[in-house]
Amino acid sequence: MSTKYKEHKIVFAGPTGAGKTTAIRAVSEVTPISTEAYASDEVREQKETTTVALDYGELSLSQTEVLRLYGTPGQERFSHMWQMLCRGAMGTIFLMDNSRADPISDLAFYLDRFAPLTEGQAAVVGVTRFQHGVGPSIEEYHRRLARPTPLPILSADIRNGSDVLMLIDTLMLSLEFPYKGG
Amino acid sequence: MSVTEPTLKVSFVGIDEKETLILRSLMQFMSSSLDLELSFVNPEQSALLMVGVESPEGRLAWERLNHGPARCIACSAERPAHIGEQQWLAIPFRGRGVRELLLEMQSWLQSPAAVAQASSATAARLATATAQAVTAVASAPPPPKPMPSAVPPPRMPVEMISDSAAGSREAGVGEGSVRAFSMLRLLRERPKIAIKGPHLPTLFVDRDRALAYLPELGHDAAEDSFFDWSLEGARLTYGQSDPFASGVLQQGSVISLARLYWLFAMSHSQGELLDGLDTKLAFGLNRWPDFGAMQCTVEERRLAAVMVAAPSTISELAQISALPRDTVVACINCADMLGWLRSAPPNASQRLFGGGLLRDTLSLIRGRLGLAR
After folding, report:
1. Half-sphere exposure of residue B169, counting CA atoms within 13 Å on the CB side?
2. Is the pLDDT of residue A62 over 50?
3. Are the Cβ atoms of B292 and A156 closer than 8 angstroms?
4. What pLDDT, on a 0 to 100 scale, did the predictor assign at position B220?
5. CB–CB of B309 and A132 under 8 A?
6. Interface test with A, best of B290, B299, B307 (most A CBs within 10 A)
7. What are B172's strand-pairing partners?
8. Residue A162 to residues A56, A166, B362, B366: CA-CA distances in angstroms?
């Protein structure tokens, strides 16, 4: 007999190497499932393996409720997975690697591509590999991304579990207190 | 009743030039907020000897002077095993550690034992002991900066000076006592400012990069320093020069502007809104703060989220966030200085809580993640 769980879902998205797999490992109470493969393209220059389908972790909330954490593959050629993973999610945490050449354009790309997939959902941006004076500041992210509603953009060290919790908490806060203008 | 401040005679042995400069700056900076006067002297005259025990010179000095009349503090990257339980200060020097040391020395200087010790004729004994151990580091200390007087200096007007290409010139002087906040608020109008106080390292603030920078202090010392920061008598300059030129940031102490303003607002607001802000208004934020850089608590994040959602009155914000009114006021002041504040008539406040079902689910998740309030 199988147990029917009420599921809640949070998605981690962003380019290769931004820390999606690490973030899920920091929170999941089960050994995360990763579909990593040896990188065979330009990603090889950044890391040995890369996610090709999804990362998965979970946290049981009660006897009947579970929080599922999904990490999308970073490369656009796996973008068919994005729609599948975002369906029914509470929200998406976009992780951006601030050491990349143009991380703000990266973010603009992901926000644009995910907009139709995440309508009505919450979103938070975590800027990883953030160093003062190196790469764009959080102010520059806000300046260049003109958006109708405020978007949380937070610097975060994904290796630090408390920063992952901070991102999830912010996602939940933006669900609890939706923007009403004024 | 005497108002004379105790004078602490300090010297440095075996600490490299850069770290000595940082330690001196931190000590001067910290002492300005304590009832403590510093005097930098030769080791044979000192009551407090800061010894870099990783250098041969410092190790020799430590062996010879550790049990003498001067208080010796070992300074090194790691606590050396041979010093046992004796006091130690980590290199690179941090403001918090230096402040604790000075507080302790202040108490010690006021004790009867220290008074008696100070009057004893120990200089000759020390001089003999240090003759072989101490070299140029200690023999030619830079002249000490002017020390604060026993009576606090009167509030000074804020002086604004333009550092245009044509050279510095006076641009205007504030009238009467100008609150310290006014200086920081100026950043809304000026992209770059520098603040120089009578006992402070120069602070550079850059709005575009959202950074504050203390070139005179070691890496990461800025945050510690701002716990005691006072802008009394400080001078403000502004202009287009870029104190954050490439590469420079690695040499000084950098702090996020939002974090700096948040620390400053928390320590200086004292429950009062800044001039021009009406307590009857509803207050909100026009953007999300960077919680990571500001190191916000769970409750502070909740306060910010409520303020981003819609303007609310101070009492509503205190109620929803479960934070004291003073913290809410500090948050509003901080947001105002940063240019993130929006306000509205109080009747525009809206019911903010999400639906009951959603709230229950979020509570459940927060509980499991250890984020419960």
Report:
1. 5
2. yes
3. yes
4. 66
5. no
6. B290
7. B160
8. 19, 6, 18, 13
Q: Which of A132, A152, A177 lies at the smallest CB-CB distance from B254? A: A132
Q: Where are the alpha helices (DSSP H) in chain B?
A: 17-31, 56-65, 95-109, 112-119, 123-130, 136-139, 180-185, 222-226, 257-268, 291-294, 298-309, 314-321, 325-338, 356-369
Between B118 and A92, the more confident residue is A92
**Strand-by-strand arrangement of the A153-155 sheet:** A33-38, A49-60, A65-71, A6-13, A91-97, A122-128, A153-155
Model confidence over B293-317: pLDDT tens digits? 888 999 999 999 999 999 999 999 9
Beta strands B71-76 and B88-90, pairing class: parallel
**What stretch of H or E contains A26?**
helix A20-27
B199 touches chain A (CB under 8 A): no
Closest CA to B320 of B286, B282, B367, B347: B282
Do B329 and A142 touch, CB atoms closer than 8 A?
no
pLDDT higher at B33 or B9 = B9
Considering only CB atoms, which chain A residues are within 8 Å of B355? Answer: none
Under an 8 A CB cutoff, do A155 and B293 touch?
A: yes
Residue of A nearest to B350 (CA): A180
For B182-229, write each residue's pLDDT tens digit: 667 777 777 777 777 666 677 788 877 788 887 777 666 667 666 555
Which CATH class, in words, describes the domain spanning A20-176?
alpha beta
**DSSP 8-state code for residue B312:** B
| Assigned token pair, B311 | 């303007």
pLDDT tens digits along B253-264: 788 888 888 888
Mean pLDDT computed over every residue of chain A: 85
Whether ipTM > 0.90 holds is: no
What tens digit of pLDDT does each residue of B312-335 get?
A: 999 999 999 999 999 999 999 999
A26-29: list long-range contacts, CB under 8 Å, 24+ apart: A26/A158, A26/A161, A26/A164, A27/A57, A27/A59, A27/A69, A27/A161, A27/A164, A27/A165, A27/A168, A27/B369, A28/A57, A28/A58, A28/A59, A28/A69, A29/A57, A29/A58, A29/A59, A29/A60
Provide the 3-class DSSP secondary structure of residue A76: helix
Q: Give residues with Cβ within 8 angstroms of B305, minimum separation 6.
A: A170, A173, A174, A176, A177, B288
- In sequence order, the 6+-apart residues with CB closer than 8 A to the CB of A94 are A13, A14, A107, A110, A111, A114, A123, A124, A125, A126
What's the CA angle centered on A53, arms A102 and A82, to 5 degrees?
A: 60
What is the H or E stretch that residue A83 is in?
helix A80-86
Residue pair B347/B323 in contact by the 8 Å Cβ criterion? no
**Would you call B208 an interface residue with chain A, using a CB distance cutoff of 8 Å?**
yes
